[in-house]
Design goal:
By secondary structure, the chain is an alpha+beta fold. It has two domains: 46 residues; 30 residues, no CATH class. The chain is built from three helices and two strands; from the N terminus they run αααββ. A hairpin with a 3-residue loop joins strand 1 and strand 2. It is extended. The two termini are 13 Å apart. The mean pLDDT is 80.
């Protein structure tokens, strides 16, 4: 039985070196660019590849899971989650069982 040599992990300070090496090996994300187009605007954004790389690394250290509260019930249902119970006035608990790989 073959094992997959690749792993999927969240981008975080411990995984930054692997991400950095991958991007460097491929000459940037989009042809030499450390694209941060999808990240919040900042004064450093878009100056050059090395500045974008440093900004991406700093943002990796301050990640937040707050996006979990911004999704709608309908969005999570489309992604295979099911409603479990209410949580407060405007939130609910959604669940999804993920089988081990």
């Amino acid at each position: 039985m073959a094992t997959d040599p690749y792993t999927i992990a969240p981008l975080s300070p411990p995984t930054w070196p692997a991400f950095d090496a991958l991007v460097q090996r491929h000459n940037g994300i989009f042809g030499g660019c450390w694209c941060i187009w999808f990240h919040p605007d900042s004064p450093e954004r878009g100056q050059d590849a090395e500045t974008n790389r440093a900004l991406k690394k700093r943002q990796t250290r301050k990640m937040s899971s707050s996006f979990l509260y911004n999704g709608t019930r309908r969005l999570y249902e489309r992604l295979g989650f099911t409603y479990d119970r209410p949580k407060g006035l405007k939130n609910c608990v959604m669940v999804k069982t993920v089988e081990p790989a």
